[in-house]
Structures are given as C-alpha cells and as structure tokens.
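At this stage, I wrote out one protein, both as residues and as discrete backbone shape codes, and that material follows here.
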Amino acid sequence: MKKLLILFLISYIGNSQEFKYDENGFINKEVVRTVNLSAEETQEKVSEWIEYYYKNPDFVKKGSVDSKFLRFSGMREYGNKKIGMGVVVPFNLYYTLRVDFKNEKYRLVVEQADYVPEGTAVISKQKVKGGKKLKQAYEEYYTDVINDINSIEISLYNYVSGKENLTSDNW
C-alpha cells in the first residue's frame, strides 16, 4: 500500500508542473514534460499546435533547429487597466517561449515575458522575469500573466501528449 501511494505521489508531482513566481520573478523558467514521441515527432506536434492556435504562425515562429528546439513568440491583450490615481492604460503581454526536444520529452522555457503598458503612459515596463520587486498595483496583473503562460503550456502539453485534438466537432 505504501509503495502504491509513493508511486501515485511521484506521478502526480511529475504531471503537475507549472510556471510559478514570487515577488522577484519566476521561480522556475522551464517545465519539462514526458511524452511517448521521438524528438522529430514532438517538434512536428508543436509546429502543428502553433499553426492551429496562432493567427500568423510564420510570423510567431522565431527560429528552429530540426529535432533540437523551436522558438515562438506572441502577444496577449489585456485591455485597459487602472494603475492608480485614476490613470487607465492599455496593457499587453509580450512573450517568447522555446521548446527543446529530446526523445520522449520536451522542455518549455520562458525566454521573455514582458507585461507592458501601451501608448505614452508615464510608467515603466514591469518585467515578469528578472529580479525587480513587484509594485502592489501590478500584483493582480502579474497573476494574470502567470496564468496565461501556464494555460499556453497546458494547451501545448494536452495536444502533444494526445489528450486533445486540434479540431472541434462542436460547431
């Protein structure tokens, strides 16, 4: 019984990876996932996922080496956010992620994730990665960024592992 419990805990911990953060930025900048595919097959699945989920897939792919890695970037609009003292500013998340491939596993790495105000607002960039202490006004939005990056990771994993298909029959 104890062996069964230990095996369950190990499998749960291994499958519950996600990006986390503290007030200094990311605690872990990478998530490693195990899949039953070769490096070539995994890269093909990641490319298919990008083709499906991004409006301009050729634009978001920033570089790749066959069976080694694939880098892509994107942007998420958050709309207008009140940042204090009545100032309302549109915010966007700009991110760059890299997927490294090995047989039967891949690693998703956050290379860049900037949560930035748009326009001519007089406030500085707040970077997700790095050692800057968070301003209290940004904490809510910072959580949104981590949630969005984790949702990208989960969506990618679900497709690559075969848990989800790219097409929906619910139309």
About this structure: The two ends are 46 Å apart (CA to CA). The longest strand covers residues 69-84. Residues 1-15, 120-134 have pLDDT under 50 and may be disordered.
